[in-house]
Design brief:
221 residues, five-stranded mixed beta sheet, four-stranded mixed beta sheet, 4 helices, single chain, alpha/beta
Length: 221
């Protein structure tokens, strides 16, 4: 039996007025992935209309907006109230390794089997925001739902796409504004970072704490 083709996903944050600050980045990524993967793209206006319609059905509150685009170009959008983020959430290390050559890592789709274990783990660990993955070269990649940044020598650094990760919308904004820059980072860089942050299109850019107890034997001098 043929497996269904995965949908493309965009998960966005809408403020109390229904405005999505990162909408240009979300639209650019969606259109880029549709073109790269051969999906029908109904056009920017049609996508925006669907988003606005979903947001208008909710009372004035911060919203989590989830858009799905099928291979045939069908759009569905769901908007629900967004809860508060835990202050300075923890991050841990994922047990599996990402393959930097996997092409779908650079597209946000419903086919995400490499993150399944972390998704289940996070459901029972409420003080954690994510687990961080490394690739076959022990390079830092990303979390299951976030990009990672290390503060090194006064600069915010984030892994390049060729390490094996999704180009997040908040990441794209930070790079374009010069607030962060790409650099190959390794697991052993974590204990030397002056600070650690994560970002995604839903929660923005925020500080996290490292749970070093989940990383036995990985931190080398």
């Amino acid at each position: 039996m043929t497996k269904p083709t995965p949908d493309l996903i965009e998960t966005m944050h809408a403020d109390e007025t229904g405005a999505i600050d990162l909408l240009p980045e979300h639209l650019a990524r969606l259109a880029g992935s549709a073109k790269a993967l051969g999906y029908s793209y109904p056009g920017e206006d049609a996508v925006i209309q669907k988003i606005e319609a979903a947001c208008s059905k909710q009372a004035a509150s911060s919203l989590r907006v989830r858009l799905l685009l099928s291979q045939a170009g069908m759009i569905s959008v769901e908007a629900v109230p967004l809860g508060a983020l835990v202050d300075a959430p923890l991050i841990g290390l994922a047990s599996s390794i990402l393959n930097s050559e996997e092409p779908l890592l650079q597209h946000k789709t419903t086919h995400r089997p490499w993150y399944d274990a972390t998704t289940k783990w996070l459901a029972t660990h409420g003080t954690y925001f994510d687990q961080i993955y490394v690739n076959e070269r022990n390079e830092l990649c990303e979390g299951s739902r976030s990009n990672i940044y290390l503060r090194m020598d006064g600069k915010w650094l984030t892994p390049p796409l060729h390490s094996g990760l999704l180009g997040g919308t908040m990441r794209a904004r930070l790079l374009s504004e010069g607030l962060a820059q790409e650099a190959v980072l390794h697991l052993n860089d974590l204990p030397h970072a002056q600070a650690v942050r994560l970002s995604n299109g839903l929660r923005g850019w925020f500080d996290v704490k490292l749970d070093a107890s989940l990383l036995p034997g990985h931190f080398l001098p």
